[in-house]
Amino acid sequence: MRLALCFVAAALAATTADISANAADVTRVQGESPIASVVTVPAGVDTIYLSGTVPPVVDQNAPKGTVASFGDTETQTVNVLKRIEETLKGQKLTMSDIIAMRVYLVGDPAKDNKMDFAGMMKGYVQFFGTKEQPNKPVRTTVQVAALAASGMLVEIEVVAARGK
User: Fold this and answer.
1) How far apart are CA 51 and CA 68, in angstroms?
2) Can you tell me the distance from the alpha carbon of 134 to that of 120, in angstroms, rounded to the nearest whole number?
3) Ramachandran sector of residue 113 (left: φ over 0; alpha: ψ -120 to 50; beta: rest)
4) 77, β-bridge pairs
5) What is the spatial distance between Cα 66 and Cα 151, in angstroms, rounded to a whole number?
6) What's 75's DSSP letter?
7) How many CB atoms lie within 10 A of CB 33?
8) Nearest-5° angle of CA 60, CA 64, CA 70?
9) Under a CB-based contact definition with an 8 Å cutoff, are residues 53 and 78 in contact?
């Protein structure tokens, strides 16, 4: 009986060890595109959802509620991603742990009220798909009518994954 219990305990320990070892194995299908086409998260991995993050005011001298007070789309994207990076650090995560992203862009008045996708991408590629941080999330980017404050052009929401 003891031998049988020892065998069962050893088998359970081996199974648990295998599950733990695979928990951090997030699979990403990412080619030349700046975003992943597929991200697979195995069972046993925590998913962390961050609320939408908006940019800080960067020019206190600009009129309140203007694009000039927050910066152009590239500037806002970089500043939002820096804020996300800080929030992730508080959760003991990094930008490489981001698996999914939703980007909301307001039409830029300087661009005939069309979203500045190129400006957003200039900011985005500073954080994803780099030599230092090669991971890319799946991503959706849409134009919206407005955000929480006038002058804001960018809001980003992310999901990150952490092995247990």
Assistant:
1) 25
2) 18
3) left
4) none
5) 4
6) H
7) 11
8) 65
9) no
Q: Quick one: pLDDT at residue 25?
A: 84
Residue with the two structure tokens 């000039």: 68
Predicted pLDDT at 137: 98
- Could you read off the pLDDT tens digit of each residue along the chain, which spans 164 residues? 454 434 434 443 333 333 322 335 899 998 899 999 999 999 999 999 999 999 999 999 999 999 999 999 999 999 999 999 999 999 999 999 999 999 999 999 999 999 999 999 999 999 999 999 999 999 999 999 999 999 999 999 999 999 87
Which residue is listed with tokens 């194995």? 25
Amino acid identity at 2: R
Give the closest residue to 119 by CA, choosing from 70, 56, 83: 70
Output the six-digit token pair for 91.
């959760």
Q: What is the pLDDT of residue 24?
A: 55
CB 46 within 8 A of CB 150: no
Query: What pLDDT score does 16 carry?
Result: 33
Domains of the chain: 26-163 (3.30.1330.40)
**Concatenated DSSP letters of 93-154:** --GGGEEEEEEEEEPBGGGTTB--HHHHHHHHTTTSSSSS-----EEEEEEES--SSTT--E
Could you tell me whether strands 27-29 and 98-106 are parallel, antiparallel, or unpaired per DSSP bridges?
A: unpaired
